[in-house]
Design brief:
Blueprint lengths: L6 H6 L8 E4 L1 H5 L9 H14 L3 E5 L5 H13 L4 E7 L2 H11 L5 E8 L2 H4 L6 H18 L3 E6 L6 H13 L4 E6 L6 H14 L7 E6 L6 H10 L4 E4 L13 H10 L15 H12 L20 H9 L27 H10 L6 H17 L5 H9 L9 E9 L6 E9 L2 E9 L2 H12 L5 E9 L8 E9 L2 E9 L2 H23 L14
Helix pairs in contact: 3-4, 3-12, 4-5, 5-7, 7-8, 9-10, 17-18
This protein binds 3-methyl-2-oxobutanoic acid and zinc ion.
The site of 3-methyl-2-oxobutanoic acid has 8 residues, from strand 5.
């Protein structure tokens, strides 16, 4: 059981406390990254996983941005258990009111309001220093009248003039903010500077001892984790981060990295978090799946190779003593360890047990469905490894309700000419088929699908990964499509790469259709911008 702070602690912890709050912004800063859009149900699922793993504050979205964001933040707030639920708002009353309305039902609601304070950002709304200072006072006071827990951020703090930064922070504290977040919006700072900035702010700004200082780093120079930890050394007691480091451009600080760094090197960084680290791997897989942003193989903590020891010297060392090359135990991040693969004789109980080890607790109906697909895979593949099971769980959702379904496909390809694909699909209950030629089997298949379901969706991403080693390995395919401002990612896994590609493409099309039907064409695209204060 992780230790969770009381409401009082998440708003008023002093800087010398050894507990660091984890503020997760996967659903806001992460989801904001182009192409990472998640469905409503996916956002609810991720929020629940974050809550269960012990995240102190979940930034659930930007309520004014769209109806979809508002609905997601409201429902996450209503369902929240122990986490504080936070919404983002620009420095205007309309944003703040909408945000307050969205987080209202949370047991612990927070409003996070921000404004760009650096010279470059001040120039956008064309405000003088005094005008901006007044706006900060008015908006923070307004937010504080609506909720007890208010976070304020001077966006681009690390490029804001020192005197002005101190001045606006003092104003925000006096106006009632309980957390001061220092964003390194463009990933510009470096560890020593990051520590020094927080330290000097706490020492200089009147009232700084009464609030929590937070750090929010972007990874443009690959220093987000180091900068966040340095900020904690300087006195910050809240780290803002995302699962897998998801986020705009090079992303945000990765939750799994800062949390594991604090755990493994607690001897030199004596601060603790409330995160149940054994839940890291599962949530990492889920975020990769729903965002469509695969985790790079050599990514720290959650990459496929993070605990793999391939070279002879390493393997020899590992066999003699695991600590030779391992600084943390795979079990500590939720990796099941070297467990035996399943096969076609494995039964339902073995599958349920394996799923549970991998972090999936599912009901009988879902187990029935997964078991059918597991058997199908085990018939084609001798050994079904953990990664195969994870891939199985990544796909196949929504299939029953999908308007477009793949029935069968046939391919002719080789060196003698263009590839040809004949695809048969069920469209809204009717069987339709089409044949198309293309530059290779995948191109021919996608063209045939477009003949059956004409659409103007633009292919933004087509990505294939082998799940395990061997020529009978499953391939997971991700396809991201964009149409009229809506973006949808489809995923599929199959031992046949072209079948997986067809299914992923159809999955993405189905999601685009649902998205349009639910919210109207283009209705959920974010028309707002940061300059619109
Ligand atoms: O990076 C940033 O500055 C932000 C703010 C909205 C806090 O995400
Ligand atoms: Zn950010």
């Amino acid at each position: 059981m992780h230790d969770r702070l009381s409401k009082k602690d998440t708003t008023m912890t002093s800087q010398d406390n050894d507990r660091v709050l984890i503020f997760d912004t996967t659903l806001r800063d992460g989801e904001q990254s182009p192409g990472a859009t998640m469905t409503h149900e996916e956002k609810l699922e991720i929020a629940e996983l974050l809550d269960d793993m012990g995240v102190d504050i979940i930034e659930a979205g930007f309520p004014i941005a769209s109806e979809g964001d508002f609905r997601a933040v409201s429902e996450i707030a209503e369902r929240s258990k122990a986490s504080t639920i936070c919404g983002l708002a620009r420095a205007n009353f309309k944003d703040i009111d909408r945000c307050a309305e969205a987080v209202r039902k949370a047991a612990r609601p927070r409003i996070h309001t921000f404004i760009g304070t650096s010279p470059l950002h001040r120039a956008i709304p064309n405000l003088t220093q005094d005008e901006m200072a007044q706006k900060i006072h008015d908006t923070v006071s307004h937010a504080r009248n609506l909720v007890d827990d208010v976070q304020w951020s001077p966006m681009d703090a690390t490029r804001t003039e020192w005197d002005y930064l101190c001045r606006v922070i003092e104003i925000a504290i006096k106006a009632g903010t309980t957390t001061i977040n220092i964003p390194d919006t463009v990933g510009y700072t470096a560890p020593m500077e990051s520590a020094d900035l927080i330290k000097r702010l706490i020492a200089t700004v009147p009232g700084a001892d009464d609030v929590i200082f937070a750090t929010h780093c972007h990874n443009d120079l690959g220093m987000a984790t180091a900068n966040s930890l340095a900020a904690v050394a300087g006195g910050a007691r809240q780290i803002e981060c995302t699962i897998n480091g998801l986020g705009e451009r090079a992303g945000n600080t990765a939750l799994e990295e800062v949390v594991m760094a604090l755990k493994v090197r607690n001897d030199i960084m004596p601060w603790s978090t409330g995160i149940d680290t054994r839940k890291i791997m599962h949530i990492s897989h889920r975020v990769a799946t729903v965002s469509g942003f695969a985790v790079q193989f050599n990514k720290a903590i959650v990459g496929k190779n993070a605990f793999a020891h391939e070279s002879g010297i390493h393997q020899d060392g590992m066999l003699k003593n695991k600590e030779t090359f391992e600084i943390m135990r795979p079990e500590d991040v939720g990796l099941a360890g070297t467990s035996l693969p399943l096969g076609k004789h494995s039964g339902r109980a073995a599958l349920r047990d394996k799923l549970s080890q991998l972090g999936y607790e599912i009901g009988d109906n879902q187990l029935k469905d997964v078991f059918v697909r597991f058997k199908d895979l085990a018939d084609r593949k001798k050994e079904v490894f953990d990664d195969d099971i994870i891939a199985l769980m990544r796909v196949g959702e929504d299939a029953e309700n999908d308007i477009l379904q793949l029935v069968s496909m046939k391919l002719t390809c080789g060196t003698g000419g263009p590839a040809e694909a004949t695809v048969e699909m069920e469209v809204d209950g009717k069987d339709v088929s089409a044949t198309s030629q293309g530059d290779g089997p995948v191109d021919a298949t996608f063209k045939a699908i477009r003949k059956i379901h004409p659409n103007t969706a633009r292919l933004q991403l087509y990505q294939v990964n082998a799940v395990t080693a061997g020529t009978d390995a499953q391939a997971t395919v991700s396809v991201r499509l964009e149409a009229d401002g809506n973006i949808a990612t489809g995923e599929s896994a199959n031992t046949d790469t072209v079948v997986a590609s067809a299914k992923a493409y159809i999955h993405a099309l189905n999601r685009l259709i649902v998205r349009r039907e639910k919210i109207g064409e283009g209705a959920d695209t974010r028309e707002i911008s940061y300059k619109d204060i």
